[in-house]
Amino acid sequence: xxxxxxxxxxxxxxxxxxxxxxxxxxxxxxxxxxxxxxxxxxxxxxxxxxxxxxxxxxxxxxxxxxxxxxxxxxxxxxxxxxxxxxxxxxxxxxxxxxxxxxxxxxxxxxxxxxxxxxxxxxxxxxxxxxxxxxxxxxxxxxxxxxxxxxxxxxxxxxxxxxxxxxxxxxxxxxxxxxxxxxxxxxxxxxxxxxxxxxxxxxxxxxxxxxxxxxxxxxxxxxxxxxxxxxxxxxxxxxxxxxxxxxxxxxxxxxxxxxxxxxxxxxxxxxxxxxxxxxxxxxxxxxx
Length: 287
Fold this sequence. Notes:
Blueprint: H1 6-15, H2 19-32, E1 41-45, H3 50-65, E2 71-78, H4 83-95, E3 100-104, H5 107-111, H6 118-136, E4 141-143, H7 148-162, E5 171-173, E6 181-183, H8 191-200, H9 211-218, H10 227-239, H11 245-252, E7 264-266, E8 269-271, H12 273-286
Parallel strand pairs: 1-2, 1-4, 2-3, 4-6
Antiparallel strand pairs: 5-6, 7-8
Helix pairs in contact: 7-10, 7-11
């Protein structure tokens, strides 16, 4: 019997040991939210972290077995990584037999000295470059590796830090790149299962390779934890007291009762309570 390559062993672990926690939930998201359609050409965006590398592997496996006809490529943007980080990304891709197409930008140089919201600006710039590069290469969709925990954390963060009820949706039409969509195939996959998959296969990925973080790590000053980390800790603590609290948060964004909200925003327009209340009365009269 022919010995399996390392990449094939990783695929086997997804098919067997992590079938329930990863593969089945990956397929669930694809079907539930109609993320891939006949004739699509997707660019899987690989940052070098555990989530995007797993997504690349899952999409590669899907391509082999799917009855839906679609094209696939793996796009990696180098925003200014140091040589060690760039090398680690390329070596991991080679081990997993993922054919990366790398393009370079100077995003880190542009945001490293920004004092106000450098992470937000960096994320916006990254998204724009990825859309642009994917579109140039004939793609109509980009696939990002946000997972279940990103979804619920973003929902809670919106309430606590943004004073709004706003979820991370499984797919999104681009407002700036016509005909382009963003999809999130890991939408139903738990981060704990991704970590377990990584550890089981003895894989080491980038955690955060941004220059701002590197500078923080080299200083002797105590760095305050991020808002997302605080929310992650909060949800974990709540989970010890409230069974399935994570799934309750996730289900809540699928079951929003708009009639009970005091204000909603739709297509960029904000409707306050009085306007909604009067509109509801008019509709009731008409009925």
